[in-house]
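Retry 2 of 3 after timeout on previous attempt. Resubmitting structure tokens to design endpoint.
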């Protein structure tokens, strides 16, 4: 043992000398003897700690503690160790254990030191809750406090605790805000802050600490009372409803004590004023209010109190209101100010403001009840009562809402007189007068002398028409008091006034009461209003009535009758501005003043303030959606603003309210017309006529004009769309209604103008002249005064020729627009148009801009007559055309005298003198450009002038300028195309196409140029290529349409008819082509002189073309006649030519098919002779020989047939590659059963290589011939083999697949259904290959689809026959076959429909469609 002590001593000395390594050695020696030696372990820990071995040092201290937990030395060493290393997380548990060790001893000083150290550590580590817990151990009641000899100052400890608790609450708030901000549904930032704040106050204990401090030393801790009071107020909001009362009572008790000793904090005063259940400001403690407002004058509540005191004293100046506003701004959540202002506004009649403040106050009180648990019953009822009263005054229609509030108040307080009165007022507003009277009777039960109740009961009698009872009750109300109310006197006077007779006229009754009311209350607007009625109706004193109305309205702009009659006086006096001001004031005061909104709307409409008018009518309609006048006004305002669809909707609403009103239907029609929806406009105009028939109202006359205008505009719209027949029909309708209008009133200038415009429409659609109502034109002519021409200095009979023809009905058949009669009809139309314009000009006074326009219109009619006369080459004399041209120029110059700078007239002058005087024409166009440099039309016309005079460069420049001004101007493109055409440029066709497309085929020159150039280009390309041009026909579709539109406007152009016939020939429309040629011939016969230049040749060509078309449609007799006429026109002595040879061949074919073989033979012989004379016909000679042989064979004689055979053999010897001759020999052999001849001919065909045959026979007719050869020899397999071999050699040729399919279908009798399947497969292959063909035409595609549809139907029919032969078939098997059959038939229908779509003129396709659809229906 002595060794241990020595070693421990050495270790302690080594530590004291800071020889820590030696200390470690000495301690190890001790521990070698005693492993749990407490002191050695402690010394060892200190030594390790100082040599830097923290791990071993910590282990040594912990082993020492384990060896003897009761001793503090090791613990203190470990604490020092942790403290030195700043291992705070380890230090705190060590200190806690050390604290428990010291608490076990009677010496509390060490425990206090440890506790204070822990408080400091916990505070530093933000473990505030544990710091608070340790601080509370220094207060009475804890074990530490009991063992301390020197007790700590309790107040100081509590104050330190308060600081920590306040910090803890702040940290909690900050931490929770950060945590909850990222949560879903956490609410807004304000909501989140309130929630966290409430949670903090509900858990905070700082209030208890405040209470302890104050209880220990109340005199020296007054500063904490304000904090404690605020804590109570906040905690009251945070805690649950069952705890709010207790917290509130503590707050009120503390606030009272603070007020008692006159605290310098405003919080207790505001707290006491806050928790007062007041129904009015008078319920608050006046002394408390004075003390608070005096002590804290700058507080918001103080300003509200000061304002209330001023208001109570009768001062409602602007300064007082500013004080109230300042108070509101500082205390927006205090109900006091709301209570003051809502009842003040109510008393002053400012019900909107009262409503706003009452609603705001009620919301605040409800929130206060929820937050504090204080009932505030009287205050809530006060706000609700004010709210209900204001709402009822502002909008009696919302009486149900007010009634609900009143009944809610009465449910809590059945003796509330004001609520009972409110119920009565609400029932009265709802016109439930019995219920209202019952409520007021209840008021009288509670207060028998209640004047209001008596007055209201009397007023209810008045409203029910019970004037005597009303008078008695009002008289009672007036006599109840010595100081009667003005309103009761007014009501009594009004009752007398409405009782009429002596009560109204005798001044002692109505007048006396009204005057008494005014004397009692100079602001009684109703009394002044009825005084105005008295002066207006009884005394007949307008000025005094106006003054009374003016006074009534100035007192109360909501007095509708006063405003209404006042505005009448103002409008009658011409004071519109003041009247509008009245309307504005009335609407500002009463949003439900419908009369004012209506008059304001119409006033704004009259003043062209359309947007303001729209706003006024919309506000009116929000109040009364069933006011038709408002809808009409709104519609008119919309229409002026260009919002036609909105106007239409408004008018439709008006029509629902006034279904039989001609005014509404007329306006709807007018809107439709403005929207260019002319059919709808016409329908509604007609409805207007039906509704107003016989009334002669304005709408009746205007509807005639509307229908006429709509028809005219619709005609122009149809013309732009290319519907020329509809154009003519609508123009006729316009004339008819204009005629009816003029029959009613011949002085309507616009109607005469419309007649002229409608007549001129037919110039563009002469083909539909038969749709023009000539009888109507006659009736219009009869309405013209006889002196119309003389009025404008024209000769009296200047225009009577055409009109006389029209009157006599000399036009005959107008259905055929190509006859000479159509020219006469157009002449009559132009004449009537000119006379109508003249009449309009006379009615306008022949002055100003209108005269300029009418002279321009008159000039146009004469120019059109000049055009018409120029075209009538056969019947018109030379002077007639120049006469009309001179008149046109005269009228245009007259127009320029009225308006010199009219660019349109200058342009028209240029056009009119285009051919007769190029210099004037150029001058006119240049002047037009000068006055309107942005218009492309004069530039374009100038280009045509230069083009006519062969100035191509100048023309091109002019057209280019027109295009620059308007790139979409089609006339400029047309002119440029003609220039390119003159230069033989390849771009001309593309330019014509663009002009035609951009103008929707409405430019005649572009239409004809496009068609002519496209056809010429196609012929040129066909001549260059020996093969068939695949796109030639399809390229002519659009030009054909353009040419058709051209002929609808120029139906007498023989060149165009001939061109259309040639194009239709290309479409294989031979019958239509023949009709075109016949039309051209007929026009020539009617209109051209036989001696005119080129007549014979043009007619010869037409008959040649006609013969060719008739031959194609098998009209052989007609073809023979046409060819003979053509040959006759050419002359017997005409030299041989290609053209003449073609006619001989055509005539020969026609004669052959007509059975006139001898004549046919003669024609072919002539043609054969001509082929030797005409250069270039050498290759055609062989074809003529074949035709000649065919005719010889047809003659039937042995000699002729021998000659035919010899001719063919000679042809073959001379031209071994001429396949038609070989085919002819083969046919002869087959017909004569001469197998040797037929076989020899077939062998000749087979000698050719496949390549040679492809060149000589592009359509591979040779294969078809060989196949037919084998078929005639009854060798079907060989026949199919030939066609199959052809397919294999050229598998990409769709024609070969189609031919094989057709042949297989024709041999079905030998092979059965399998053959049909092969036929369908081949037809499908043909259809699949068709789009890939270089020479594809529409007819090829149509025939391919038709072939496929037919083979599918044949295959299905054969299959159905097989199925019908089955024995005992199962039902499901039969159903399956039926489904398959239906699918095949549907496919056939689809293919047939495609065939029709590809070539609608293909009759075969239509037949297949009909057959397949019929089978599908079966």
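Retry 2 succeeded. Sequence:
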């Amino acid at each position: 043992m002595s060794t241990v002590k020595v070693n421990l001593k050495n270790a302690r000395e080594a530590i004291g000398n800071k020889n820590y390594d030696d200390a470690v050695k000495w301690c190890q020696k001790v521990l070698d003897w005693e492993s749990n030696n407490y002191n050695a372990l402690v010394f060892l820990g200190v030594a390790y700690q100082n040599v830097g071995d923290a791990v071993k040092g910590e282990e040594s201290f912990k082993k020492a503690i384990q060896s003897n937990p009761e001793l503090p030395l090791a613990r203190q060493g470990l604490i020092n160790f942790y403290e030195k290393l700043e291992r705070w997380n380890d230090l705190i548990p060590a200190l806690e254990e050390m604290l428990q060790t010291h608490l076990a001893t009677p010496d509390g000083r060490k425990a206090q030191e440890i506790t204070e150290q822990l408080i400091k550590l916990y505070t530093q580590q933000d473990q505030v809750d544990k710091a608070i817990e340790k601080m509370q151990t220094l207060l009475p009641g804890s074990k530490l406090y009991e063992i301390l000899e020197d007790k700590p100052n309790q107040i100081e400890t509590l104050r330190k605790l308060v600081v920590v608790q306040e910090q803890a609450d702040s940290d909690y708030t900050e931490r929770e805000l950060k945590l909850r901000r990222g949560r879903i549904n956490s609410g807004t930032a304000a909501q989140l802050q309130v929630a966290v704040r409430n949670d903090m106050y509900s858990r905070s204990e700082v209030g208890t600490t405040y209470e302890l401090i104050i209880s220990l030393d109340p005199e020296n801790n007054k500063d904490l009372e304000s904090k404690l009071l605020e804590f109570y107020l906040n905690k009251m909001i945070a805690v649950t409803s069952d705890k709010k009362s207790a917290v509130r009572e503590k707050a009120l008790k503390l606030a009272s004590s603070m007020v008692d000793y006159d605290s310098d904090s405003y919080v207790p005063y505001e707290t006491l004023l806050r928790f007062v259940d007041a129904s009015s400001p008078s319920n608050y403690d006046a002394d408390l209010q004075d003390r608070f407002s005096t002590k804290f004058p700058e507080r918001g509540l103080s300003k509200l109190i000061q304002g209330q005191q001023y208001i109570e004293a009768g001062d409602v100046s602007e300064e007082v209101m500013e004080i109230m506003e300042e108070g509101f701004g500082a205390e927006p959540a205090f109900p006091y100010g709301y209570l003051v202002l809502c009842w003040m506004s109510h008393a002053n009649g400012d019900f909107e403001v009262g409503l706003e403040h009452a609603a705001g106050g009620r919301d605040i009180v409800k929130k206060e009840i929820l937050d504090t648990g204080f009932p505030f019953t009287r205050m809530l009822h006060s706000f609700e009562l004010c709210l209900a009263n204001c709402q009822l005054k502002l909008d009696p229609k919302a009486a149900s809402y007010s009634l609900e509030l009143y009944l809610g108040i009465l449910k809590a307080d059945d003796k509330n007189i004001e609520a009972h009165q409110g119920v009565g007022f609400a029932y009265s507003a709802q016109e439930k007068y019995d219920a209202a009277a019952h409520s007021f009777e209840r008021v009288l039960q509670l207060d028998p002398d209640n004047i209001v109740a008596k007055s209201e009961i009397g007023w209810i009698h008045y409203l029910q028409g019970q004037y005597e009872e009303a008078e008695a009750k009002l008289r009672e109300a007036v006599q109840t008091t010595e100081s009667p109310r003005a309103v009761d006197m007014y009501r009594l006077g009004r009752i007398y006034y409405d009782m009429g007779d002596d009560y109204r006229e005798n001044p002692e009754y109505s007048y006396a009461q009204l005057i008494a009311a005014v004397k009692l209350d100079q602001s009684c607007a109703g009394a002044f209003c009825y005084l105005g009625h008295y002066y207006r109706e009884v005394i007949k004193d307008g000025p005094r009535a106006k003054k009374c109305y003016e006074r009534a309205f100035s007192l109360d702009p909501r007095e509708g009758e006063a405003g209404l009659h006042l505005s009448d006086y103002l409008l009658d006096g011409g004071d519109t501005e003041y009247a509008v001001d009245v309307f504005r004031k009335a609407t500002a005061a009463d949003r439900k003043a419908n009369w004012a909104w209506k008059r304001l709307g119409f006033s704004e409409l009259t003043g062209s303030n359309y947007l303001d008018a729209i706003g006024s009518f919309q506000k009116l309609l929000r109040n009364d959606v069933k006011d038709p006048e408002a809808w009409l006004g709104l519609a008119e305002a919309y229409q002026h603003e260009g919002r036609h669809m909105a106007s239409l909707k408004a008018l439709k609403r008006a029509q629902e309210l006034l279904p039989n009103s001609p005014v509404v239907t007329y306006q709807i029609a007018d809107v439709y017309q403005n929207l260019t929806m002319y059919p709808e406009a016409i329908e509604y105009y007609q409805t207007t006529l039906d509704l107003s028939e016989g009334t002669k109202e304005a709408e009746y006359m205007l509807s005639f004009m509307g229908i006429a205008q709509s028809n005219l505009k619709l005609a122009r719209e149809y013309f732009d769309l290319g519907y020329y027949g509809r154009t003519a029909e609508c123009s006729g309708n316009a004339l008819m209604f204009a005629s009816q209008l003029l029959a009613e009133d011949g002085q309507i200038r616009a109607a005469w103008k419309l007649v002229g415009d409608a007549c001129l429409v037919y110039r563009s659609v002469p083909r539909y002249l038969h749709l023009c109502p000539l009888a109507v034109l006659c009736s219009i002519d009869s309405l013209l005064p006889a002196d119309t021409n003389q009025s404008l200095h024209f000769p009296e009979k200047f225009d009577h020729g055409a009109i006389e023809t029209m009157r006599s009905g000399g036009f005959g058949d107008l259905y055929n627009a190509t006859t000479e009669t159509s020219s006469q009809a157009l002449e009559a139309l132009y004449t009537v148009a000119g006379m109508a314009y003249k009449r309009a000009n006379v009615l306008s006074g022949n002055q100003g801009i209108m005269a300029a326009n009418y002279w321009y219109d008159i000039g146009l009619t004469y120019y059109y007559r000049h055009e018409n006369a120029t075209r009538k080459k056969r019947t018109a004399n030379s002077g007639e055309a120049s006469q009309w041209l001179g008149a046109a120029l005269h009228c245009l110059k007259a127009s320029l005298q009225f308006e010199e700078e009219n660019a349109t007239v200058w342009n028209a002058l240029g056009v009119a003198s285009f051919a007769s005087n190029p210099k004037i024409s150029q001058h006119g166009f240049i002047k037009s450009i000068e006055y309107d440099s942005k218009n492309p039309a004069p530039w374009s016309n100038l280009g045509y002038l230069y083009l006519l005079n062969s100035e191509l460069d100048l023309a091109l420049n002019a057209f280019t300028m027109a295009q620059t001004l308007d790139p979409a101007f089609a006339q400029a493109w047309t002119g440029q195309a003609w220039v390119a055409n003159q230069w033989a440029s390849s771009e001309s066709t593309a330019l014509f196409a663009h002009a035609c497309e951009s103008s929707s085929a409405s430019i005649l020159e572009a239409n004809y140029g496009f068609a002519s150039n496209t056809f010429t280009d196609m012929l040129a390309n066909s001549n260059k290529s020996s093969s068939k041009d695949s796109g030639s026909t399809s390229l002519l579709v659009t030009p054909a349409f353009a040419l058709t539109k051209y002929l609808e406007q120029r139906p007498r152009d023989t060149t165009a008819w001939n061109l259309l016939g040639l194009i239709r020939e290309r479409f294989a429309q031979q019958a239509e082509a023949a009709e075109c040629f016949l039309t051209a011939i007929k026009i020539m016969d009617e209109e051209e002189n036989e001696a005119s230049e080129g007549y014979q040749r043009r007619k010869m060509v037409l008959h040649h073309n006609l013969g060719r078309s008739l031959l194609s449609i098998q009209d052989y007799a007609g073809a023979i006649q046409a060819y003979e006429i053509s040959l006759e026109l050419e002359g017997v002595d005409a030299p041989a030519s290609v053209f003449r040879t073609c006619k001989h061949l055509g005539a020969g074919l026609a004669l052959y098919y007509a059975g006139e073989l001898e004549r046919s033979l003669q024609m072919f012989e002539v043609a054969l002779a001509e082929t030797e004379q005409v250069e270039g016909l050498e290759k055609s000679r062989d074809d003529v020989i074949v035709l000649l042989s065919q005719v010889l064979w047809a003659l039937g004689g042995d000699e002729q047939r021998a000659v035919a055979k010899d001719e063919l053999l000679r042809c073959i010897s001379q031209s071994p590659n001429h396949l038609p001759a070989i085919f002819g020999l083969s046919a002869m052999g087959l017909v004569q059963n001469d197998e040797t001849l037929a076989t020899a001919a077939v062998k000749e065909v087979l000698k050719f290589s496949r390549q040679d045959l492809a060149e000589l026979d592009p359509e591979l007719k040779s294969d078809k011939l060989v196949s037919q050869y084998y078929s005639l020899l009854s060798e079907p397999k060989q026949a199919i083999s030939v066609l199959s071999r052809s397919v294999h050699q050229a598998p990409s040729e769709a024609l070969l697949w189609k031919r094989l399919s057709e042949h297989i279908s024709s041999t079905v009798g030998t092979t059965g259904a399998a053959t049909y399947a092969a036929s369908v497969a081949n037809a499908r292959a043909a259809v699949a290959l068709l789009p890939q063909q270089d020479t594809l035409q529409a007819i090829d595609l149509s025939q391919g689809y038709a072939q496929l549809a037919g083979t599918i139907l044949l295959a299905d029919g054969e299959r159905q026959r097989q199925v019908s032969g089955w024995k005992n078939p199962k039902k499901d098997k039969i159903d399956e076959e039926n489904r398959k059959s239906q699918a095949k038939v549907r496919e056939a229908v689809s293919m047939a429909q495609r065939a029709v779509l590809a070539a609608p003129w293909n009759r075969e396709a239509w037949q297949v469609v009909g057959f397949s659809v019929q089978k599908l229906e079966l």
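Attempt log closed. The two ends are 131 Å apart (CA to CA).
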